[in-house]
Amino acid sequence: MRITIIGAGYVGLVAAVCLAKLGHIVTAVDREHVVQDLQDNHLSIWESNLFDMLVISRSEGKLLFATDLIQASAGADALMIAVGTPTREDGQSDLSQVEHVAAQLFAAGSCPPLVIMKSTVPVGTCDKLEQSLQAAGIRTEVAFNPEFLRQGSAVKDFMHPDRIVFGCHSRQAEAKLRQLYHGIDAPIQVCDRRSAELIKYASNAFLAMKISFANMISDVCEGYEADIRQVMEGVGADRRIGPHFLQAGLGYGGSCFSKDLQSLLTSGKAIGRSLPLLEATAQINEERIPQMMDKLIALWGNPRGKRLGVLGISFKPQTNDVRDAPFLTLVQLCHLYGIDVQAYDPVVQHLSMKGVTQVDSAFEVSAGADAVIILTEWPQFIELNWVLMVQLMNQRILLDGRNILSDAMIARLITQEDVVYIPVGRPVVH
Ligand code: NAD
Hints:
Rossmann fold; six-stranded parallel beta sheet; 2 domains; 14 strands; alpha/beta
């Protein structure tokens, strides 16, 4: 098939590369500077395998880049929309990027016979888009095909998903979508567009809720000197619950969970429903960083002028994405308290933020620090020489925001003088 994808960000570029790998001819359309970078084989996205697959697909002539949507989609079998749908100040989804794409199609008066919406959009958006395209005399069908990939394992997730969902209304659209994904071995659910739109939001809301649930129970563990790791191991062993997304820590971040939760809350409000589970999920998440900082400030007394070393900037390991990362909340709070931040991340580079000094190694983070906080569970942080790390510190307070240090390592560390180890959902060790 010939596919045009508008939006070559995390989702669009991964889809483009993977669909080319499946044998389709894909043209990915984006803004001039993005396309220029891609044509120079310069990826701003750090994803395992993505670069190699991109280079191969391009050399085979299966992956092209363009800036003109209408030219690039002429003669295509389908147009996939993968532009951003961020949240507006009022919590509603900002659909201006999708609307801009639609405006280009209206102006051209033409469009491929199938539009596949990959962007996460509020329930009813695809219906409206199809109606307005058809009202403008453009013969096309809009299908919703949510994306469930996780950043950090995006290519693997795209090629080996748990399920593929097609929200569409005609057999022709379904047949085209099946052809598009031919070669991927996964169960396919075909349903109406509105249900498909809600599947995406409900899935993300549920995952966020699991994380907030674990974090809520971790507060109880702290009050009663229990161990959240053991509690969640026991809880997650129940097959009705499952072990995933039950790790307590400093909360979720990233471009999707918070925004999709907000959007679903807004959709609920629009029909007079308050969705209290989701409100609690968001609130618990927002409390994580301030709660950890309260513990630190209780030890420090006066925080002004203290130096906090931070390990991990991206919102999770294996990605360079800092959108909605807990790091951003932490930096804001540090700024308020007058705390200097010294941060290191294995892949996030050249971050320019007031009050933040970015350094080139974990050891530079701990050198002279009055505390070090582990914000992202990069595997290389587990392997660090922690004895040396604490020796380099000015004040030996270690906040393990992701519970990554082993009990054996903690036992070794506290033989050092004045070490205080503060985990999440477990007793403080000193
Ligand atoms: P992104 O910001 O990384 O990418 C969007 C791209 O669209 C950007 O490169 C931007 O330049 C381009 N774009 C926007 N308007 C354009 C226009 N008019 N012409 C040309 N290019 C244009 O966003 P993303 O993370 O890839 O997310 C895209 C959608 O997928 C969102 O709706 C998101 O909710 C959803 N989603 C994201 C993830 C994820 O992990 N990032 C997972 C599942 C679903």
